[in-house]
Each structure stands twice: as C-alpha cells, then as structure tokens.
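User: structure tokens for this one?
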Amino acid sequence: MTTNGLHPLESLLRERIVVLDGAMGTMIQQYKLSEQDYRGQRFADWKGKDLKGSLELLNLTQPQVVEEIHAAYLDAGADVIETNTFSGTTIGLHDFLFQGEPKRKDQEFFQRVVDDVDLRALVHEINFEAARIARHAADRVANETGQQRFVGGSMGPLPVAGSISPDVNDPAFRAVSFDQLRQTYFDEAKALLEGGVDLLIVETIFDTLNGKAALFAITEASEKTGRRVPLMISGTVIDKSGRNLSGQTVEASLISLAHAQPLILGLNCSLGPDEMESFVEELARTSPYYMSAYPNAGLPDALSPTGFPETAETFAPKVAKWAENGWLNVVGGCCGTTPDHIRALAKLARQFLPRVVGTEISST
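Assistant:
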C-alpha cells in the first residue's frame, strides 16, 4: 500500500517524528520465566542444552508473553514494534538449538550450523511466528485507534564477526565466511517477509561486514518472496571513540552501507543518551536518509532494576532534546527501556517537527 506514491511509513515520517518501541529482553526478564516456561510442552524433552535465555524460542512456547509486551509498547504510543527476532538466525541460536558439538567454532563448524535442515526449519518457524504475533498486536491496536501501526522485522547482530578474529593468538583467523553470514541472514529475512512485516530493521551493527551480509541477504530474500519492504539500518558504536568493533567511524559506516539505499539510517544500543549524543548529531549532519536513534537507558548498571540506570523521567528529556534540535525522524529505546520510557519519550518527542531530510543541521 502506498500513499501518493509513498509507502505509508514514509508518509508518516514526513508528517511527524515516528516512535519505535523499547527493549524486548528487558521486558521478558520481568516475567521471571523458568527453564520449563522456555521449553513449554513442545520442547519439554529437549536434550543436552538448557533453553532458558533463548528469547526467540518464546515465540513458539510463550507467544502470549511476547504479544503482551508488544501490546504494552503499542499502548505506550509506539508507531513501530519490532519482532522478537533479534538473535533469530541459525548462527544466533546455535548455542541453544544446534545439537552438534564443535571441536572449534570455525568455518567448518558454522557451515554445519547454517546447513542443518532441522535448525533452518525451526528458525523459519520462529521468525514467521514472531512476525505473525507482532502483526496481530499491531493490527488490533490500529483497528481500535484508527491509527496504522507498523511491524519491523528485527535482524540483530551475531555472536561471530566476519572481519574480526575471535582468537587473539591468530589474527588472520575468521570463524565465519561472508557466504555463511549471508545464508544465516537469508533464512531470517525470508521468514520475516513471509510473516508479513512492514519493514526490515538491520540493527546494532557492530561489524560492518556482518551488516553487509545482512543487506545482501535481504535483497535475495526479497527476490525469492516477491516482497520488497522499506529498509532501516541502525549501527552501534562501542565506546566514546565513536567507532564500531570493526574500527569504522559513524560517517565511515554510513558510506559503507549507503549502497543499500535505506529509508531510515541511525544508531542504537551500546551507549546511553549522554554518551551517544555527539554521534547522533554527527550522523544527522551527514546522512541523506531519515534519521533514527534509540539508545540504551544509560550504561549497564547491575544495581538498577532493569540493569540500566536511566528511568523514564531521566531518559525521555535527554533523547527528546535530539528531536528538539532537529536531528531525528524516528526515536525509541534499546536495552533497559520499558513502556514507561517509550510513553514519556513519545509525549515529549511529538511536540517537535521531524528532521528535514537532506538539509544541513546547525550546530548546537
């Protein structure tokens, strides 16, 4: 569906700042689910590995929990909710769901992971059901409120990187190949498209080569399914140097990924609003795309109830300031954020006009 030749999401982006949801994992932790809760009836006899912590498996074993979380974010004012598929790839879930044991986690091992027929089928089901659950929640709230809500297919990072050696004694070693990265992301993207997502979100990109593999896979999955949806790309910086794990600055990452022509490009995760601010400003100044930002609720803090120190009352004004500065088109929260954070943020951010794409941002 388009509006005046535009996708409905782009029409909304031109109208006002769009609100993304907050953290899925933070909310799941509040349910204090047991090993048996994660297993459910279907995986009650799963052998060899504990399944507690496999958040994506809950799409099959506790779908009502996932939908409740989606509903809470929608009720808080989110325009876009993300599927519970952040680690929903064969490689991302292999520690829980792959039965083979490695001598070493190298390319030979990960080839078995990405080729495993049963694991691929299970990953497809997990992603398809995640999209269906989010779609049901979004459509229900849209029908109740008369305001369209969107489902973003979350494609998060992997536990391995294509451009970095995990072995400090062997800097030339690579645990995975580009083709293995592409294959694992293809399975996820295909299932999300078939499940009915409105856009795909390649997020928390810490290794640019991993991100490129995901983008390659999305192109293939779009061709395979015959469905093309808008693309959102969100990188992450790992420290105050403003670089990702593969050493690129914010601007360098933009240049490396711009060939995919995303609708939205921005930053999320690893840093809180205080630490991320200068990098959000830099990207808003240089990017020709709609701009997104959804930081963590501060830096990790084990003594805080959510594991992160920023409350809704402290988080929202800091992030809304970026909207007031004219930097943002999409705003939300990452690790440590809850519906309370999103409700407070939506209330403040919607007071400001969205960033005009393609214009210079003045210094503040």
